[in-house]
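Final report, results section. Input specification for complex C-07:
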Amino acid sequence: MSSPTVQKGHICILDFGDRHFFVKAAFGEQVKLAANKSPRVHTTGLIGLPYGCVVEVVGNKLVRTEDDLMSPPLSALEDGKGEKEISSTQMTDNRDLVDSNTSQKIKQDDIQKMKEAGKSGTDIINELISSSETFEGKTEFSKAKYIKRKVKKYVLRARLVRCTSSTVCSLLFFKDAKRYMCLRPDSLAQILSYSNVYAGATVMTFDTIGIPTASIVERMGGKGRILAVHTSQDPPHKQMFERFNFDFRHQAVLKFVSGYELFQGAASESAGQGEKLEDVLGIERDSMVAQGWPVPLQDHTRSHLAEMESDKKREDFLFKRASRFIRKVTRPSLPETMDYLSSQVDSLVICSRHDPLLVLSTLFPYLAPSCPFVIFSEHIQPLASCFDHLKTAQSAIKLQLTETWKRDFQMLEGRTHPEMTMDATGGYILTGVKVSGKVLEVEKRGKLVGMGAAAARNSGRGAVRKKLKDMEEEEGRGKKLKVEGGGGSKGGDMSKGGGGEVS
Amino acid sequence: MLSRPQSPELDHMNGLASNAALDDQISPTFTSCSSFTESLIPRSSTISAGDLVVIYSSVSELDFVYASPGSKHSNRNGTFHHDDFLGQEFGVKVPSRSTDGFVFALRPTPELWSSSLPHRTQIVHDLDQCNVILYLDLKPGSVVLESGTGSGAMSTAIARTVSPGGKVWTYEFNEDRVTKARDEFARNGLADIITVTHRDVCGKREGDVGGFGDFVPDSSADAIFLDLPEPWEAVGGAADKIKPNGKICSYSPCIEQSQKFCAAAEAAGFHSVNTMEVRLKEYCVDCVLVEDEIVCDLPFYYGNKAVSDRKTGEKRKAEEGAASEASRGGGLGGGRGGKTELRTRPKQTMRGHTAFLSFATFKVGR
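Structure output:
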C-alpha cells in the first residue's frame, strides 16, 4: 500500500492531464488509453516503476521517460528556435491573422503515414510546427498553447499516480460525479476529519458508494474496526477496495455487517436467544484460537507448493489463499456481528442514497455519547430533516449543515486568475456530536439557589439570553414561524434551551 | 444483546496484532498503542482525573479543562465543579451549582480542541485543515514537517492521522510559542508524535542557517506543510527533506505569496503544482408555516365599517382560536389550516476567505 514502487497487481492511475485511467499493473493486462485505432497497451511495464514518474506509450508498451509531462517538444523547440522567438516576441500579435484553415501544409493522411512509419510524437509535432505558416507569427504564449495541444494529441505521456483516497476520489468525481453522489474530495476530507477517524477507533459506516469506507480503511492503518453496514446480500464495493491496493493487515479492520440485522429487527430477536448464542460464540471462538487462522503456512501447504509446476501457479495459489482469508476475516458470522454491535462505536458515517433519516434513526443508538457523526448527501432536503430530528430530540450538539465551495486557480506570473470552470456542488454535509441527554443532579447550595436565580434575573440574564440566542442562531436553526397578520412570531424553542431542566 | 468478551483471542481475530507471522510486516510502534489515542482521545467512556475535557457552552463558546477533583471552572454560564462530572460519561450535561446554566462535558477531538484552544496566533481552520490532510495523502505512519507551529491546532490534527508510527516535526521561530506548544503537546499526550523545534526554517536572521535541521534525515518526509509569511524561502530546505513523490502544501492568505511559492516550488523540483481555495457555506433549517390559502385584507374602498362587518362573528373567533392553539403547541402544526415545512437557507454571513492552498509533488529521480 505504501511501497514507493508499483507492485505486481497494484491498481494505479495514469494521469494524462485531461484524461485519467485506472490501470492494473499485471502480466497479461491490457488497457485502451486513447480513442479509436490506438492499440491496446500492456501494463506489465509499470511493475517496479516508482510512483510519480512519467510513462510514455511506445508501440503497445508503457515505458518510463525521464522528462516531464509536457517538456520535451517544448525543449526541442527552444534548442532550435529559441533566439528567433525572443526577437520576434515584440512584433507578434493577431493583426495579420487570416482564419482560412490553410496554414497547415501537412494533411491528416501524411500524419497517419508518419505514425505508421513509427515516428515518435515529438517528431510529428516538430514536422507540424515547421510546416505551419502561421506558427512563427504567434505570440510566445500562443506558441506554447499550440504545442501543448499537439502534445496532448500526438504524445501519449502520463504521470503514474498512486491510488489514495484523494486521487481516487478526484478521479471518480471528475469522471462521473453523479454516480458517486457528487462526493468531491473536499467533502471527503471533511467526512474523514469531522468523524474523528483515527487508527484504533471503532467506526460504523453506512455507505452506498464505497469511497468513504475505503478511505477510512486507509486512515485506520490496520488498527481498529470498521462496521460497514450494507443492504446487499454480499459485501459491496469490492472494486472500490481493490483500487486502494490494501494489504491483508489493512483490510482486516473491515467487518461487514448486514443491515438485515439492524433494519429488519433481527438483532433484537436473536438477542432473545442470548444464552444459546453465547454458547455458539464460545465454541466458535475456541475453534478460531485453536486453528489460529489466518494461519502461517503449514508444512503440508509448503510441500503442496513445492509440488506445483511453476512459480506462476504458486503465486496464484498464495493469492487465492490470502483472498480467502480476507473474505473470512471481513465477513463476521452472526454471533460475531452481535458481539460487535453490543458495544457502542466511536463515530458514525452515513453516505447513502437511502433516506438518511431512516438510516440515522436506526444507527444512532449504536453511537457512543460525545462522539461525532457525519451524514453526507447530494441533496440538502434529507439532511434538513435529519437536522430537525436531532435538534428536536436534543440528542446532538454542534450541528452544522454545510456545503463547500472549491475553486482552483491558474497561478502564473502576471496571469493569475481562478479557473474558468468550477464544480457547482460537492455535496452537502451534516455534522454533529451526540450527547447522552443525561442531566446530572448537582447539589445546589441553599443560599446560592436564591442568588443564582437573582443573578439570572439581574446580571446573569444577559448572559443566559445571549447563550440561548447563540444556541439558536449559530446552530443554524432560527425556528421562524411565519404566521401572517403578525399573529404569532413565536420564539420557537427558546424555552427548550435554557434553565428549566435543573431540578 | 451479548456481553462483550474481553479475551485477548478476540483481538487476535480482529487486529491480528499478536500473530507472530505478521509481526515483521508491522512497524515496531504499531504494536504499542500510541499515547495519542489514549490521552487526547480517551478510549474510556467515563471522565477520570487528568483527562482533557472540552467544556461546551454554545457553538461559539468552548473551553477546556483537565479534570481534577476539587477544581472549579467558571464561564458566563456559571460555575462548574469538576467533581460533578468526574466519573461520569463523556457527553453528559452538567448543570451549574450556582446558576441555571449548564454545559456539556465532551470527549476532545482535534476539531473541538481547535475551537477551544488558547489562540496564540491565527489558526488553520477546520476546513483547510482537513483538506490539507487529505491532499497531502497523510495516513498512519506518515512523517510530516510543519512550519510554523503557531497555536498547535494543525499539528494536533495531523498527529491524529499519522499516529501510530508517524511523526510530526514542527518548527516555530517564536520561543515563547515553542515553550507553550511543547507543554501543551506533552499535556495532551502527543509528545511522542510531535516534536517542536525552535528554529526559523527560512533562516532570515544573520547567522541563522535555516532549513529543517540535521536531526531529520534527508529525503525522509512524506509531506511538508508551510504556513509562513514567506513560504518560498523555505522551499529549498523542504526539497532536501522530502521523499521522492512526497507532497508539499503552502497555506497563504495572499495570492502573491502563493504565486511566489508556486514559482519557487517548480524551480526546486516540484511538479503538479496547483492552487485552490475552499469555503464553507453554512445553512439554517427553518420550520416554516405554509398557508394553504391567501387571505387578503379588505381594501380601503370598502371603508372601515365594511371591515368590521365582515370580520365579525364566527370567522374572527375561529381565527383567534387557531392562533392561540398554535402558540400553545409551540407554534408547530396547527395554525390556520396551514402546515409546517422544513426549509433551508444559507446563513447570512460566511467566512469569505482564509487562505489559498498550494499543493505540489516532488519529482522522482532515477
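Residues 1-39, 326-335 of chain B have pLDDT under 50 and may be disordered. Chain B touches chain A through 129 residues (CB under 8 Å). This concludes the modelling results for the funded period.
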